[in-house]
Amino acid sequence: MRPTTDVHQHLWSEPLVAALQARRELPFVRREHGLSVLYLAGERPYVIDLASERSTRRAAQVREDGLERALVCLSSPLGIESLPRGEAAPLLDAYLDGALRLGDPFGVWGSIALDAADPDDVDALLERGCVGLSLPAGAIASVDGLARLHEVLARLEQLDAPLFVHPGPGPRGATARAASFGEASLADPLWWAALTRYVSDMQAAWLAFLSAGRAEHPRLRVIFSMLAGLAPLHAERLCSRGGPAATEPDPLIFYETSSYGPTAAWQIAEVVGARQLLYGSDRPVADPREHAIVDTFDWDDVEQATRRALGERYTAADADAAETPGGHLAVESHRLTVAEAPAR
């Protein structure tokens, strides 16, 4: 069985690109030598392939991947959510207008300005048809960060909508972020930020929610992108340093697979339970075919998890189905039993 929903894609819509082209400060887009080049704080310039971003082409790609639906979100490393509210608002409106205009087979994660974040922003996003709220990991990467967004998260919880956590800076903004990490260096590989800052942001967000967020928001469903930067694999070290001891997996925390392959997904599932994994590709940034993850696993549990994560009721029949061994992975008492574990 193949997954039917990709919970993590991006798409450069015309309204968003136009709004970024109109800016004079980071982040912005410039046309250079016939190319659309993105500039943002702390990272090297990035060329946007606008031809491949046409909605018809991307919709066809969803079908080519064997999917029924793909959820698009704002790329939080841009730092748009972290800008002053007056600067963030037109960019967020442009993103949302372009994303909601896509129609089937796309769904949309909403985004808000972190400056003076307002729970009413959540209501507005859901009323417009967003499936939930996406936040940059840096916004909730500390207990203080979670406290600042308490009312926003409480409103999301009250409305029974999910939170999607994506790498990106917190409310200190792009300027402070660039000062903290230094300007992008041409000596750094293009992948440097994705393997350093993105990973540490996701791990910090996971640890903060584990230590303080769940107690404050007991019914909030949370999806961590990129397997939370593999944070659950540090559970033993967390315990040895005085953190919370490992318990049964949290049934309301989910982990999507973007940029990782079967080996990492198998290891995470062994810790958090295979019923907490979701499928995410991070297209067009990453190509999931590189790791053959879709063809390696039996994704019956992923389909059940996706319905639970996005708000569909988890029935007793679903639970029974999730207990049935199949393919490479099988769940037993919320833990992973390996039939054919990937080579390590």
Describe this structure as you would to a colleague:
The chain is built from 14 helices and 13 strands. With 344 residues, the protein is α/β, with parallel strands linked by helices. Strands 1-5-6-7-8-9-10-11 form an eight-stranded parallel sheet, with helices on both faces. The chain has a three-stranded antiparallel sheet with strand order 2-3-4. Strands 12-13 form a two-stranded antiparallel ribbon. Strand 6, helix 4 and strand 7 (132-136) form a beta-alpha-beta unit. The two termini are 24 Å apart. The relative contact order is 0.12. Mean pLDDT is 85; it is low at 173-182 and 313-344.
| Helix content percent band | 25-40%
Number of strands: 13
Radius of gyration: 19 Å
CATH class: Alpha Beta
What is the ordering of alpha helices and beta strands?
EHEEEHEHEHEHHEHHHEHEHEHHHEE
Number of helices: 14
Strands across the major sheet, in which order?
1-5-6-7-8-9-10-11
Q: What do we call the CATH homologous superfamily?
A: Metal-dependent hydrolases
On the 0 to 100 scale, the average pLDDT is 85
CATH topology: TIM Barrel
Overall body shape = globular
- Main beta sheet: strand number and arrangement? 8 strands, parallel
- Uncertain stretches of 5 or more adjacent residues: 173-182, 313-344
Task: Look at the helices and sheets and give the structural class.
Answer: alpha/beta
CATH architecture: Alpha-Beta Barrel
Task: Determine the strand fraction and express it as a percent band.
Answer: 15-25%
Separation, N- and C-terminal Cα atoms: 24 Å
Whole-number count of domains = 1
